Target: Peptidoglycan-binding protein
Amino acid sequence: MGNGPEAPPSVDEEWEHAGTPRESHPGAGGPGNALARRRRLLGAVTAAAVLVSGLGIVAARVIKSPAQAAADTAAPPPSVITAPVEHRVLKEAVILRGSVRASQTVAIAAAVSGGAGGAPVITKMNVKAGDTFRSGRVLMEVSGRPVIALKGDVPVYRDLKPGAEGEDVAQLQSALRERGQNTGGDRSGLFGPGTKAALTAFYRSVGYDPLPAEDGGEEELTGAQEAVTEAARRVEDIQTAARRAPSAPATGGRSGTDAAGPGERTDTAVELRRAREDLAKTQDRLDRIKAKTGPMLPASEVVYLKGFPARVDAVAAGVGGKAEGNALTVSAGVLVVEGFLQKHQRGLVRPGQRVEIFSEWEGKSAGATVRSVATGLARPQPAAGAGEGAQDKSAAQGYAMVVAPDKPLDASMAGQDVRLTVQTAATEGAVLVVPVTAISAGADGRTAVTVVRADGKRLRVPVSTGGTGDGYVEIRPAREGELSAGDQVITGVAAGAGAGAASSGFGAS
Model:
């Protein structure tokens, strides 16, 4: 068989040819060992392939092409802000702060009544801050004399004494009648006997005696009354003597025919006439003294307030020691609100305009009307009880505006700081409006809004504008029917949309 082709070398022979010795353990050259070696070789090749593939994937993620890098760094699509077109009445308003206060505030100083000497001393304080009180209340006592609250509009400017006439007297008479004291037949405005009696009775009802209108007046009145009595008796005596004279019996040797003659009767008549004249003079003097004597109402013992119940805003003095400045501050009447307009607001606000009062503290609102607007600049007054000279010089000057509520405000709102919204203008009816920021202008100067349709498309719609208010503007589309309530218009670009987005979207079609 030596002439046949040679058989291919076995695996063992290949290993030996490569210089790898065969295993020396028994059976090393068997077919089982050869199969194991093939499997090990195949596993190594597979692992290498997996490693190369993983490295390729990592490289693909880390290394980008120039085109991909540019795409990744481009600005994202702009995110726009939209708002609906609305159909409503457009209002323009002025908003400012205001302070709730009473329509009348009175500072009461401690003073000595009736011109008595010495410094005033508060001997009683019958109220405290926050109290409410009614007409006839003795608020405090100064040097033993009362300070009484009564109803009235006319401020106190003088002492009222018997015989006085005027509107302030009529006010006193009305206040006394309200307190149940009858002023008799005195005509309105005349401090007569009925008013004197009523004032005396009122003072005694609150625990005091009224001061006399004239020092020594009672003694003078008594003397005048005695003079009248004496003059009246003189007249009576002369009349009695005259009646008895014709029938008087003769005395001293004179006969009955010697009775008083015509001359004596004439003398008696003259004496009677003169006595009657003296009586008339003394009676006239008594009447004049009566008219000016009696009780008085010192200006320091009364404070008139427009309405009750009234409120004590502040108590600045206590019992004892000398009273200086204002001892009490009280307020009365309906609550109003005072605000201060700046120069640019002054021309927009006028009496009669509608106002909304809103209390953030109570979460309540109320309707009101502008009552008055000052023509001159002023600074807000300090809070009640802050003391004289406490005006804040740093507070901005403004034009005082007084607002009258439609309905009486609750007393708890007195002194509160509130928000005032004055409606300065309004459209006659409902109109199409959009936020002011929705209006844009093209290169041709025409104004337009950009509408975003339901499918995302944008449409520039030319419009003309009207009045503004509350951040909105009235719009009228150039072509009827192009805009309607509910359409979404672009008002801006969302924060973070990118610098490139700031100018996109507006004017697009």
In short: The chain is about 25% helix and 30% strand. The first helix runs from residue 11 to 17.
